[in-house]
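Researcher: Next sequence.
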Amino acid sequence: MGDDEPLVIRRLKNNMLAGLESRFPLTDVVVAATLLDCRFHGINEIEEFMKTKGTTKVSFLASMVRSRLMTEDIPQNKITDSAGEVGTSSSVNAANFLLDLARKHSATQQDAESAVENECWTYFATASPEHLQPYGGDVLQYWRDKKTCMPSLYALARSILNIPATSTPSERVFSTAGLVITAKRSRLNPIRVNRIVFIHDNYLKESKYSTVTALQSQLNSLRLQQQQLEDTCAREAELREVASNERKIRNEIAKIHREGSTQAWA
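Model: Next structure:
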């Protein structure tokens, strides 16, 4: 944003940016999907996300593999006695706790975590956008060929990249307009429907709007802000006009000086 932009334009940009960030937040799944596409490793948003989280790309991707894919290596069977499946809940919980503790500190689990980190290191060290050219930009086909050498990352890519970015049926099921227009509201005016949808998407559901009095107070505040913005725009227009008149006067003075100098030489 430029410093010479009017106040109204700057506020408009800030509001639009806040709206986009609220509707399209940068989540862990989105970042993981971006990292699994080697064309987008170095974008600024990912670097800022890693700085905010205080982690690295390798650690982040390895943690995503562990949190979404890795399962327990030791099966947790029910504790039974010789008389049958008769065990108390306390004994089962104690056994599960011991199994979790053993799994956490077992060599097998540590080796698995080390293998995942090694895969991440190898991927970030070797992957480049040119590697997707033989696949025509198909990231899923790229990871399908990496299934043998990077099994953990392949499983993560298959679980995340297969999620469609959008779906027309789901949009219709959960759309606001579909909930507004029903069999009993089939004669709503289209303009009124658009206004209802706009209010639904932009109305802040906070405690300060819980009563009519609070809503009226907020409306008066918005009107005051609008008046202040209009006054600011008017002052900016006046300043532009003054600056324009000043330039005209300076040009006239310079013209008079040039004509006087010409007559003196003549």
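Model: The chain has three domains: 15-78+92-163, 166-203, 205-266. The chain is about 65% helix and 0% strand.
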